[in-house]
Amino acid sequence: MAEQLVKTDTLICTVARSTSTVVARATLSNPTAGGWTMFLDGTFKHGGNAPEDVDLGPGDGLIGKVLEVSATMKNITGKPAPLSLKVDAATQSGTMQGEASAGHAAHYSIFVVFVEAT
Amino acid sequence: MRAVVPALASLALLAPHPAAADDAAPTADAPPASAAEASAEQAVVRKGAELPDFDKVRTPDSPAFTLLGVSPTQIERPTTPKQLTAVMSKFVSDGNAVVPKNLAVEFSPYGLLGAVPSVRDYLARGWRREAIENLTLSLATASTTRDVTDDMGVTTTHTDSSLAIGARTHFKLTGKPAPGCTQEELTALIEIAKSEAVTNSPEGALVRAAGQDIAAAAQRRAPPAEIEALRTKLNADTLALKNKLVVSGDKIASLCIREVASVHRGWLMEVAGATGFGFPDDIAKKGRYLRASLWTDLAYESDHFSLVFLVRGLDDKASGSHAYAGDLGARGILAKDAYAVSLEAIWRHAFDRSDMSTAPDDTFRLALALDIHIWSTTWLTLAFGRDFASSDPGSLFSIANLKYGLGDPKVKLDHGPDAGPLPVTP
């Protein structure tokens, strides 16, 4: 069985209730051999391979909710390579990275907890 | 190498086309000024229609079909020994051996009988093993009718059958594999990421509750250490849950290991052979050898350049005596985003030609094609050359040595949102 690289992290993201639209974006490292999905409080929002903006709705409805960006990537370069997931949500961003051997995969989840800006 | 396709298509435009003279003639009710445009339009349409035959320099995928000159609309490709047995059973009828009519079957012996290799084993294959595992066998039959008039002046129609058996393989000589993901594999990776999402699992409620706790702590302006402790606990809990959800590494190991679009960057060798037999009046006992052919090519491919050297031989006994011919040739294609240039040269030599024959022993085919990207999806195609049979009536080469087409290629440029994954800016 191939070696597994599993990581999770939590990002606390402040948003103003007055924000009309909050956008999140997931970016996987190059070369693209992976997929990502976004779940907001357990509800599937969107998935893809390439970077893409996902509209999460107004800030008022996000306070206290958790956005999970789950990504599965494979190193297809033939040599050890870093595999990374970058998540941008509102004005904040977080990155998760790990070194994967050739042919091995990384399984990441970044949890974005939305809290009210004070 | 997306520009290659229009360039190769232009070579197809140069191929002998019996209807070319008629196609080029202006129609009676069309004004003379638009006749050239109409001709170009027809040429472009014809170019598209002829695309499947464009790559005649390369070794044929199904040599048995090529040898018989048939283009079967349905090719049976058995994937289990049982299916293969069912196909082969068509050769027996009422306990007698028969030649089934219009059969086309192609199969890989290794694919049918070989064990599924591990990913590591598959990637470590040497050229000999690749040649064996890539071997495919093809078998085709075709029926033709002929009218025979006897001494009494009575005409009867006879049905004859032909049967050809072919084999083909290919293997890499140099070049590191540059694997990529197909669209299906990319979709599978999204589905895997979806199945591994913690908040999508039954334990997702715990994560949502922890998120609300963090939000509540931030709301009441709790000390940063308290919020950090909640965050640390959430990280530990989610990592444990994520580890439970992660799919088998073996499942992911089999994804994205092949070279996408069959483009191998390096040297590749292809070998194929086929032999054909004729059965007058469909009678097996009357069976006789018709022809045999051998194709080999050595091809180099990179992102913008491809080169093919070919050697092929043919023994044709359809007319009753052996007629041997050999081809030696090369084709090079240089392609960039805005243009593609291709040059093809093949020398053909006929061996032991009868003293009665007036045809030359040596003939050649030479074709130069240039595709220029004009705008959007429009390409200008210029082609020049001559074919082996340039003196034959109806050969496009003998009618026009320079021809152009202005129109849309049959392959869309991969711009826009449907182009698939885009490179990520670090």
Could you explain how this protein is built, in words?
Chain A has strands at 4-15, 22-28, 34-40, 43-48, 52-57, 66-74, 81-89, 92-100, 105-116. By secondary structure, chain A is mainly beta. By secondary structure, chain B is of the alpha+beta class. Helices cover 29% and strands 32% of the residues of chain B. In chain B, helix 1 packs across helix 3 and helix 10 (204-219) packs antiparallel against helix 11. Chain B is elongated. The relative contact order of chain B is 0.16. The model of chain B is unreliable at 1-55, 392-404 and 407-426 (pLDDT under 50). Classes of the chains: A mainly beta (118), B alpha+beta (426). At the A-B interface, strand 1, strand 3, strand 4, strand 6 and strand 9 of A face helix 7, helix 9, helix 10, helix 11 and helix 12 of B.
Summarize the structure in short:
With 118 residues, chain A is mainly β. Chain A has strands spanning 4-15, 22-28, 34-40, 43-48, 52-57, 66-74, 81-89, 92-100, 105-116. Chain B is an alpha+beta fold and 426 residues long.
Low-pLDDT runs of chain B: 1-55, 392-404, 407-426
Low-pLDDT ranges of chain A: none
Outline of chain A, from the CA principal axes?
Answer: elongated
What does the average pLDDT of chain B come to?
74
Rg of chain A, alpha carbons: 15 Å
Portion in helices of chain A: under 10%
Helix/strand order of chain B = HHHHHEEEHHHEEHHHHEEEEEEEHE
Total strands of chain A: 9
Strand share of the residues of chain A? Answer: over 45%
User: Order of strands side by side in the largest beta sheet of chain B?
Assistant: 3-4-5-6-7-8-9-10-11-12-13
Q: Alpha-carbon distance between the termini of chain B?
A: 25 Å
SSE class of chain A: mainly beta
SS summary, helix count of chain A: 0
Indicate the structural class of chain B: alpha+beta
Q: Specify the biggest β-sheet of chain B.
A: 11 strands, antiparallel
Biggest β-sheet strands, sense, barrel of chain A: 5 strands, mixed
Q: Please give the number of β-strands of chain B.
A: 13
